[in-house]
Structure formats: C-alpha cells, structure tokens
Design goal:
It is built from 5 helices and 2 strands; from the N terminus they run ααααββα. By secondary structure, it is mostly helical. It has a two-stranded antiparallel ribbon with strand order 1-2.
C-alpha cells in the first residue's frame, strides 16, 4: 500500500505533453483567428521572463498532480469513506489558490489589448473575473486528478 502508483517521471512527461498540446492549439487558434491583425509577438513569447513562467507552471502542475494522484489513489485503494476525501481536496484547492496568487503577482500583466478590425482597445482584468476563472480552473484541475485516480483504481 505504500508503493506509489504514479511515478514522478511519468507524471512529468504526461503533464508536459498535455501542456505542449494545448500550447500548440492556442498558437494555432491565434493564427486562424480573424481578430489577429498581425503575427504573434515572438520576442515576448520567447523571452526569458515568459519561459520562466511556463517552466514554473509545468513544474508546479507536475508536483501537484504527482501528490494528488497518489493521495487520491491511496484513498481509493484503501476503500476509505467519502468524508476522508474532503481534507485532501480542500488542501489541494488552497495550494492551487496559493499558486494562482503567486503566479498572478509574479507573471501576469492584468492589462491586455483587444484588436477587432482596425480598432484596438486596452482592457484590464477585473478582480472578480480573475477569481472566477481561478476557481473554475481549480475545480477542473482537482476534479481531473480525482477522476484519473479513480479510473486507475478501477
């Protein structure tokens, strides 16, 4: 029962592959979007600041999934009661909240430019919009970890 079901290396490579897939889909969407008037700013995308933020995200999510997948798998394998899943879930949500707060303060510019046709507007993300998106992402991320551990247990 003490043996880990998911190895760190496997979690890292799967997390990296999924991360790269969605990054590719995002770049593809930018190219085919009618709102894009120009090519992406490759100097900004390939800057050391942006690359450090991406490496930080990949490392965090690898560690997060490694810990939560193994924790939830142990709970499923031990046939624990449903209430025993609450504490790891709340801790996971708090850790995700800390990650998003740190990520926002260190790596995110709250201002963004919207370009439709020839007009450009500069908007700023509101606090409510950011909190809502972080909460929804956290629920999805934690739910995915729980679901994957459960399906592996079956």
């Amino acid at each position: 029962m003490n043996k880990r079901r998911f190895s760190f290396g496997r979690v890292f490579w799967v997390t990296l592959a999924i991360y790269m897939f969605f990054m590719f889909v995002g770049l593809l969407a930018m190219y085919v979007s009618p709102a894009m008037n120009k090519t992406p700013n490759w100097e900004k995308i390939l800057s050391i600041y942006y690359l450090v933020s991406q490496a930080f995200s990949i490392l965090f999510f690898t560690l997060f999934y490694y810990v939560t997948l193994n924790m939830f798998y142990r709970l499923f394998a031990g046939k624990h009661k449903t209430m025993q899943f609450v504490q790891p879930s709340v801790i996971g949500l708090l850790i995700l909240g800390a990650y998003y707060t740190l990520s926002f303060t260190l790596f995110t510019n709250p201002k963004f430019k919207i370009s439709v046709g020839d007009t450009r507007q500069e908007e700023e993300l509101t606090l409510g919009m950011m909190v809502f998106s972080f909460v929804m992402a956290s629920i999805f991320i934690l739910g995915f970890s729980l679901l994957l551990a459960y399906l592996t247990y079956l």
